[in-house]
Amino acid sequence: MIDMKKSILENGFSKLCTAKAMTELYEANFKQVSKYVHATSRGHEAIQIALGLQLLPQDYAFPYYRDDAMLLSFGLEPYDLMLQLLAKKDDPFSAGRTYYSHPSLKDDDKPKIPHQSSATGMQAIPATGVAMGMQYKELQGLDDKALKALPFVVCSLGDASVTEGEIAEAFQMAALKQLPILYLIQDNGWDISANAAETRAQNAFEYAKGFNGLEAISIDGANFTESYDALEQVIHTIRKERRPFLVHAKVPLLNHHTSAYVWNGIVMI
Length: 269
Ligand SMILES: Cc1ncc(C[n+]2csc(CCOP(=O)(O)OP(=O)(O)O)c2C)c(N)n1
Ligand SMILES: [Mg+2]
Prior knowledge:
There is one protein chain. By secondary structure, this protein is of the alpha/beta class. Helix content is 39%, strand content 13%. The protein is built from ten helices and nine strands. The chain has helices spanning 6-28, 30-33, 45-52, 68-73, 78-85, 124-139, 165-177, 196-199, 204-208, 224-241; strands at residues 60-62, 153-158, 181-187, 190-191, 194-195, 215-220, 245-250, 262-263, 266-267. Strands 1-2-3-7-6 form a five-stranded parallel β-sheet, with helices on both faces. A two-stranded antiparallel sheet has the order 4-5. The protein starts with 5 loop residues before the first helix and ends with a strand. Thiamine diphosphate binds at residues 66, 118-120, 158-161, 186, 188, 190-192, 257.
């Protein structure tokens, strides 16, 4: 995309380099860093940042454990994230009580992040519920009329979590009720150490076709400009037309699944 604003490209690239550098720092200091367990966004940075840069404070975000680059793009600093990584009491999310990249936040200037479970995929139903709440407020005339753009919800998921029953329930209701939600599926082809062929009959883009009213697209999530442009279009449509979308982003996993899968410096998948 030639005419994408230079400032967006510079900002995106800077966040991408920061996320990569954080991963490298964590892995180089593995024993000191991994107090509980950590996952990193390596390979997923472009799609996460392309999305995060386009959210507004009135939006709700449900990131998952691999979304540390997305958190950077919301305006969180590496220092903030490292406080959680090292289980420090000044961690802005949970005072060190939950492990890395399990955020919860109600800062005025950032998207709102409700606390969520460590059981993977469990954010889908609460996220869909928030979108239903948004719709209810609008129908009742209780929404904030001063806002320049209507809010929406982002529910971020890994490809394997989409095989869970919870996700089917969430998609069903979003499609049926036409809720303002974006399901972002980061498809790295892995479910810890089981691959896509071993765990599913179709990818999330194909699966979405079974839910009438849930529009889906499939993109290269490692390509920042393609991701940013596609998401810009999708987000614009959700804010205006108040209906659900699924964005299936293909990405490589360039680091371990989580630090729990590293033994004596060897990645176990
Ligand atoms: C309900 C539940 N089942 C299993 C697990 C163990 N688990 C943690 S992450 C994961 C794989 C998820 O893969 P995916 O959703 O594709 O995300 P990725 O890590 O590949 O980005 C599994 C099975 C869990 N945390 N919760
Ligand atoms: Mg995966």
